[in-house]
Recover the amino acids of this structure.
């Protein structure tokens, strides 16, 4: 009888089976794997489960896994991997297995699966192996046994790197979703401020053609007509407020809004600070008790719902009082989008309060302000690191118990630089659909970048229309 071989751990660089003669009673093998939310989604996809209509698709998918999938597909798969790659390995004939499911399995669990030879029949070369799976707390989640016929021939080959598996996502449809939200609403009169390049002027016409706005072009007429002629755009039927330059365009657009002649401002080819300087000027008449802040509405294939990032465009290094308004404005936007009680994650680099990191202190105070009713209409938690805010599995690994962690609707960033980089990374590397809007003034303000695509500009106008209709009955 050969010497007993030690239990095989993870990190195999080669696959080598063990024939019946190489196996003895008591031999064993094991592997460890942490269950991720992607595992849940893959299993859900394999069974045809669709949590898209659930209020919380992540939670729905995880519950479905725990109740219907994990103790079947996942348990069998983990045991099969150990039997098929470690003991006995390739070439074994799997006759059957009986498993008892002792405890639920959840995203974030670290599962250790082991097998041990308990019966060894030389006449038939049949083996029975006990099977056991425990989680990170040592709780037995699966136990039972499997019956096999050991391989007759020796096999060995180098293990290759397996291809990465990604679930194919449908198109985000972020723009489509926002347009659906405003379908049936009347177009609103909007001042397009200095749209003196082909991109911004064509975006205004696109928004008009989509039934979102009735535009008023506030810009030098001669320059507008030159841009339109060069780009092949038709300005017939569009009102034009002729002004000498971009600064005058910003001031005149604010006057129109303050007088109630337009309900939305749309930034054209002028700089953001030029337009916002006119908006927040005391004489402009658009200021409210709120700080003017900016929200990006994002939708990415990696997250199951639209979410808001704020403030990533207006307030550079907001104070605590300004952050409170940033939160309030974002909550108002979420309400307008139909989210009754948005979950707000106050982001920082860490999820613990540290006196040396002001963002963590601000987060704690904002949460206490919500507890005292100074910020209403939402559930706040923070500080939360980004991974904890968007990943339930990451939050569970770190022991964070929170109604917001892993399910945030609003991400409040510490400052403009971090927020802007986050939003741009999601857009350009994460495939996110985006829209941008400024709130806190008497009218919503569409603030788009010169690099923004047509869909982004349309989606931003859709947000403005939604807010303009809301402001008719609930002025900011």
């Amino acid at each position: 009888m050969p010497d007993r071989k030690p239990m095989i751990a993870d990190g195999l660089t080669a696959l080598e089976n063990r024939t019946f003669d190489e196996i003895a009673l008591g031999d064993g093998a094991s592997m460890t794997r942490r269950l991720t939310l992607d595992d849940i989604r893959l299993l859900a996809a394999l069974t045809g489960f669709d949590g898209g209509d659930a209020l919380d698709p992540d939670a729905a998918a995880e519950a479905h896994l725990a109740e219907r999938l994990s103790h079947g597909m996942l348990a069998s798969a983990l045991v099969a991997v150990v039997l098929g790659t470690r003991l006995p390995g390739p070439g074994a004939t799997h006759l059957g297995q009986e498993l008892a499911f002792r405890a639920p399995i959840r995203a974030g669990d670290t599962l250790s699966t082991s097998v041990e030879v308990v019966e060894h029949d030389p006449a038939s070369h049949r083996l029975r192996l006990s099977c056991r799976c425990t989680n990170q707390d040592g709780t037995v989640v699966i136990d039972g046994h499997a019956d096999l016929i050991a391989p007759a021939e020796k096999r060995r080959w180098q293990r290759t790197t397996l291809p990465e598996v990604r679930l194919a996502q449908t198109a985000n449809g972020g723009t489509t979703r926002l347009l659906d939200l405003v379908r049936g609403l009347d177009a609103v009169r909007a001042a397009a401020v200095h749209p003196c390049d082909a991109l911004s002027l064509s975006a205004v016409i696109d928004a008009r053609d989509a039934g979102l706005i009735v535009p008023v072009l506030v810009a030098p007429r001669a320059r507008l007509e030159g841009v339109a002629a060069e780009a092949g755009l038709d300005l017939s039927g569009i009102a034009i407020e002729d002004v000498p330059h971009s600064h005058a365009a910003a001031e005149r657009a604010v006057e129109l809004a303050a007088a109630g002649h337009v309900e939305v401002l749309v930034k054209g080819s002028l700089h953001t600070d030029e337009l916002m300087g006119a908006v927040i000027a005391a004489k402009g008449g658009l200021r409210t008790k709120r700080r003017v802040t900016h929200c990006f509405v994002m939708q990415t294939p990696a997250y199951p719902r639209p979410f808001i990032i704020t403030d990533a465009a207006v307030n550079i290094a907001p104070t605590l009082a300004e952050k409170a308004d940033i939160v309030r404005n974002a909550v108002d936007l979420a309400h307008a989008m139909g989210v009754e009680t948005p979950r707000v994650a106050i982001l920082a680099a860490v999820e613990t309060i540290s006196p040396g990191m002001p963002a963590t202190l601000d987060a704690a105070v904002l949460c206490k302000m919500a507890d005292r009713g100074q910020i209403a209409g939402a559930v706040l938690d923070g500080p939360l690191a980004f991974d904890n805010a968007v990943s339930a599995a990451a939050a569970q690994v770190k022991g964070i118990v929170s109604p917001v962690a892993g399910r945030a609707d609003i991400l409040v960033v510490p400052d403009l630089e971090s927020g802007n980089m986050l939003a741009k990374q999601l857009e350009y590397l994460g495939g996110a659909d985006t829209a941008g809007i400024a709130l806190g003034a008497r009218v919503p303000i569409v603030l788009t970048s010169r690099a923004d695509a047509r869909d982004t500009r349309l989606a931003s106008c859709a947000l403005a229309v939604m807010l303009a209709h809301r402001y008719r009955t609930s002025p900011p």
